[in-house]
Fold this protein.
Amino acid sequence: MVRKAANTVYTMWLREMLRFWRSKSRIVGSLATPFFFLVFLGPGFSSSYRLPTGQPLDNSFLAPGLIGMAILFSSLMGGVSIIWDKEFGFLKEILIAPVSRFYVALGKAVGGVTTSIIQGILILIIAWLIGIKYHSLPGVVASMGIMFILGIGFIGLGIALASKIESHEGFQMVMSFLTMPLVLLSGAFFPITNLPGWLKLLVYANPLTYGVEAIRWCLLGNSTIPIITSLAGITLFAFFMMLLGGKLFDSMEI
Amino acid sequence: MLYAIETEGITKKFDEITAVNNVSISVKPGELFGLLGPNGAGKTTLINMLSTMIEPTGGSAKVWDFDVKKDAPHVRQNIGMVFQDTTLDDRLTGRENLDLHGRLYDMDSKHRKKRIEEVLSLVELTDRANAIVKTYSGGMTRRLEIARGLMHHPHVLFLDEPTLGLDPQTRNHIWEYIKVLNKEEGVTIVLTTHYMEEADHLCHRIAIIDHGEIVALDTPEALKNMLGGDVITLELENPDNISRLCEIYKENGCASIVSRKNNDVFITVRDGERQIPHVLELASDAGIPIRSVSLHKPTLDDVFLHFTGRAIRDKEAGETERVGYILRARRK
Ligand SMILES: Nc1ncnc2c1ncn2[C@@H]1O[C@H](COP(=O)(O)OP(=O)(O)OP(=O)(O)O)[C@@H](O)[C@H]1O
Ligand SMILES: [Mg+2]
């Protein structure tokens, strides 16, 4: 029973890895945005803005935000890619196999989160090469754990959306109305200490905020939101999203 | 186990239409069974119910002795399915597609590797196995799907329009694989088609399905014999003789049905080839000159026409476009 479940999860993970490997050029492309942000936006920011603590707002502040953003994009895409599986038929091949749908969804999630973490790590490395100093090695390792939890959350959300959305036109809509606000309202690009009330409300209701803050804490050793709070925030988010995704996927009509 | 598949009044209603209505069929183990019907007849819906992809709204069905509603996982373990539209992962290679399939069906590594080679060589794709599926032709895609359906040694294999949109040569090839499978591996096969020749050439028994109902079910031979035999058409030199000639045949009792139209007399006989000399002799004895003779063996088209009052071809208008669409979708 357990072996069979593990086998299903592994198979789905393997497929994601094979596909990921085939789309190397896409991955290089996805690193372009964070790279340009770090190289051009960072110096621009640090020459113009100061953190409330008085230090310049620079690359090291941006890096966790960019990692959070990459995790958001790739995880959401990973979950939503079920729509493609549906449109191009492969989903039927999975659903007719004698395996549990829940473990199929889980395997898909683990596969998606692996690719997200790989992208996150690549950004970590790029930022390091550019000259950003990380707080400590255990912190860097811990940040990967945060990427995992955050990734699971957004994949769960993606799977839930994919199970409800019929076509990929609907998907385009959702992606543009979901991702940009999530990124811009997350404190990825600005400090969240002195925000006006309404904005503060939105920012604190955004799961990505807690993810970015947790990564910031791990990499730089300080954050506005205490690490316990942000860790609890993303863990709860991941748990409920996976539950929701698994449930909706289970009842999806093909 | 008496039957590989047994349905009792199985029914599927969608919001407005009844796609499959009260169908009861039994398929014996080892049989090659065909579902023949025009577009929209309900073929896909029927095999989707049998393969547990969708739930029936009425009636019941057993596949390999497992109930499709109550015991879906066991049904799935015992069947293979080739869907009407492609379901391969076209970013992966042929071999990877087969490997993932083997894993989903819990085959161990040694067994999986061996079986991959077996099914690849059966469908003659061994040399293209490491190419990305996107680069395959329509026929190769179809062959790979059949190979994949067989990977896990299913007892029952469902093939939904296995040769739709393929050129005649590829179609013949696929027919050969299907026959080999059925004979040598002893797989029970249910295939749907709207090609008469395909059903006729391959199937042990055929169910003709129209508007969700089975209108006839028998061996291809028996179905054709139901029409009473072959039709000999005699064209007369002179229409004045036509009534007299009809009388002669009716009196002689050599034909089961005699009819006429313009200059032609149609007589339905068993064993047409052997009857022609006798029929001509009767005419020449009566001194009635005949201009031409032709023999028409009944086809499943005639059977379909007989049972539904329509030619299956009428329904196929626009098929060229449809095939074009499917090929495009397959290639994508
Ligand atoms: N999910 C669905 N919702 C509503 N109606 C459906 C659905 N699936 C099929 N139908 C309808 O049920 C009928 C039978 O469809 P089905 O696909 O089983 O036909 P078919 O015999 O396989 O035809 P074809 O040769 O075109 O594949 C059609 O009228 C079709 O429109
Ligand atoms: Mg069909």
